[in-house]
Amino acid sequence: MYRLFPILILLTACSETSAPQDAALELEEAPVDLAFCKGEPFANTIGEPVSTIQAQLPERSRVLGPDDIATQDYRIDRLNVYVNGAGTIQRLTCG
């Protein structure tokens, strides 16, 4: 009897689980408070080229493309401007 427990545990670990079909699994991003990193004036620039605001960005801001490498340190006073391959602003975050 006790010899079956390891086998049952392995079979349970290998079983497939599925997500509920009726649940909507859309993730919504939390609203970003850009006041901490002085990004409020740029909140309406999503969809525009980054070159239009690049000279006006705060001192501790960075522009990140789709393949750019960025440090993982969190700085609340730093504005992150995410752009696509064409240089169009996709989103703004603090950190």
Summarize the model shown:
The chain has one helix at 4-14, and strands spanning 61-64, 79-83, 89-94. By secondary structure, the chain is of the alpha+beta class.
Architecture blueprint of SSEs:
Elements: H1 4-14, E1 61-64, E2 79-83, E3 89-94
Parallel strand pairs: 1-2
Antiparallel strand pairs: 2-3
Structure description:
It is a single chain. This protein is elongated. The model has no long low-confidence stretch (mean pLDDT 82). The chain has one helix at 4-14; strands at 61-64, 79-83, 89-94. The longest helix has 11 residues, at 4-14. A hairpin with a 5-residue loop joins strand 2 (79-83) and strand 3 (89-94). The chain has 1 helix and 3 strands. It has a 3-stranded mixed sheet with strand order 1-2-3, with no helix packed on it. It is of the alpha+beta class and 95 residues long.
Q: Give the class from helix and strand content and strand pairing.
A: alpha+beta
**Gap from first CA to last CA:** 56 Å
Whole-number average pLDDT?
82
Biggest sheet architecture: 3 strands, mixed
